Amino acid sequence: MSGGSGADRVPVVVGPTAVGKTAVALALAAHWPLEIISADSRQVYSRLDIGTAKPSRKERARVPHHGLDVVEPGHRYSAGRFAADASRWIEDVRARGYVPAVVGGTGLYIRALMDGLFREPPLDADRRKAVEEFLGALPAVELVRWAGRVDPGFHGGGRQRAMRAIEIALLTGRPLGYWQAAAREHRRFSPWYVVLSAPRPMLHQRIARRAEEMVQRGLIEEVAAVLSEGHGTHAPGLDGIGIREPVEYLHGLRTRESVPEAIAVSTRQYAKRQETWFRHQLEGDILRLDATRPAEELAEEIAVAWSAT
Fold this sequence. Notes:
Blueprint: E1 9-14, H1 21-28, E2 34-38, H2 57-62, E3 65-66, H3 79-95, E4 99-103, H4 107-114, H5 125-136, H6 140-150, H7 159-172, H8 176-182, E5 190-197, H9 200-216, H10 219-227, H11 244-250, H12 259-280, E6 285-290, H13 295-308
Parallel strand pairs: 1-4, 1-5, 2-3, 2-4, 5-6
Helix pairs in contact: 1-13, 3-4, 5-7, 6-7, 9-12, 10-11
């Protein structure tokens, strides 16, 4: 890596789901001695490989990945913990003389890592467990409503994000945003963003095809195996897009035939939110590329642009 790259500068490849981030990142290995830091909030969960679209074993053998299979499906994994873990992975990769490239579509993970770390305030374990049990019994729509009432900075999100906002507010007396602002450490890395995009019709086509392939490859059986371990239906690892739909089928709430389309619909909505986030929330050096082009061509352009900055 040359061409004026600072010691703290990190390439960050982002974009909506199914846009081709993994293919581009793997192609970059032809230009850099690369290791990938996955910034995907679903791929941290063990044994949920198909439903979270993890890189294949062959791809992982080709380029080492960090951030996959970090926790059990029944455990929560926060953006703050990701930032701490990813910072360590980045430093370890650099110490071995390799290039750490952050690759993923979870905006909160990217922000936590690149905007600086924050420490969670100390929480009483017994009270925390009691609050989690109470909140776990509430429907998602109720959780989101309460999160908005106790935390003015809560602007929407899924069940787990809402639970965390409520938990912090109730147990500390202050909203999560306060702790993030008050306890933020000095920014450790300077992001060099590569934002991949594709026309919406093409992205929707890729999403639909991937949803069908996931079911064909054994998604439902994969989820059934994890459920058989005793995890609840609202366990953090089972509450994401691509997993909750098979869970609903396995509990008799939808037909097997409806699973791929349900996944595709939710994924399209998520991809739209990701596109909006990456359009408005990133700051600093940004290279925006049309991901309809071959991954190898995009990787070459990225490598040239990196060396020129």
